[in-house]
What we know:
Blueprint: H1 3-18, H2 31-46, H3 54-78, H4 84-105, H5 111-131, E1 136-137, E2 141-142, H6 149-169, H7 175-192, H8 195-213, H9 218-247, H10 251-257, H11 261-267, H12 272-275, H13 302-326, H14 331-344, H15 353-364
Antiparallel strand pairs: 1-2
Helix pairs in contact: 1-2, 1-5, 2-4, 3-4, 3-13, 4-15, 5-6, 5-7, 6-7, 6-8, 6-14, 6-15, 7-8, 7-9, 8-9, 8-14
Amino acid sequence: MPYSLRLSGFFFxxxxxxxxxYVFESGLPQPGHIMLLVASLLLFFSQKKIVVPxxxxxxxxxxxFYCSLINLFYAVYFQDADFLKPSLFLIYNSIIFFAxxxxxKNNILSFKALVVTFFCAASLxLLLFFSxxxxxxxxVRFYGLFNDPNQMAYWFICMLATVFFVAEQQSKxxxxxxxxxxxxxxxxxxxxxxxSGLLGLLPFVIYVAIQSLKxxxxxxRGFKLFLFALCALIFSLAGIxxxxxxxxxxxxxxxxxxxxxxxxxxxxxxxxxxxxxxMLVIGGGEGAHKRFxxxxxxxxxxxVGILFYYGxxxxxxxxxxxxxxxxxxxxxxxxxxxxxxxxxLATYGLRTPIFWIMLAGLCSVKRKI
Length: 369
């Protein structure tokens, strides 16, 4: 492999790791985002032949074009340039998607590199937590160097899904490694006290259990299941105990007990699809949020956000892409995809690079004929 492509692979891994470090406020380019763009450009200029399925080019191209068109319309109508920022995010993320897809398919971004990146990112969060130097909400919800706890939990959900997708694509399945990946994710997400994170972790636990059951011998199978259950229990309880000790109360359980679902629906913007059904035709555009909420808060859901911001047309285009990405990939891949899907119900991730990196991992998995 040419040196420039190896360098590109290193920059991809470094960019993904650096995307856990937010130097500026959300909505502004971060160091990791710039590194990912450098890696993408280096890959495109170094690779003699770029092979990306035409269907993905067409499907994502149509989705990004339609979303940009809607945002441009509202930007002109309201004389508000902020509507154009989401379009720039979409264009940037589509570039990252195609570059990472190419890098994974050609083993430029390897399974090993993704695993190392995941463990480095998780270790950084734990180091920051135990040293007391990470960011928190009132000393309770820890989120490392991210800009909020849900952002951190979402990053680890999407990254873990990416690692497992590439494991499927490159046939790199290892039960013990999978156990430790899930355990690290559990501990970090517990520290964030993210309610949605609990739901997002469930498909990974089922995935590892399925891997254990597929072991060749009954003894092997039983041992691995026992080891997985034991390790998961010990480390999960350790993560909870540490979080409780740090916050002087069980924050996650308290947040679950005190959840007001009707209030959450209003805060997260779910009720907009009911209150403003006229926006569901072509979409309300991604901006000027005070039209729908006096606080100007955006919708906290990827799937509700796509439907409301870009209407039935935008939602159809994106679902059409997902249908092609999941077609003939098997039930295991579908199970893994449910993790970011579940978490996406409570977090808006369309403009987050790690979401598109996860989609690139999904699309790289070979079809089962």
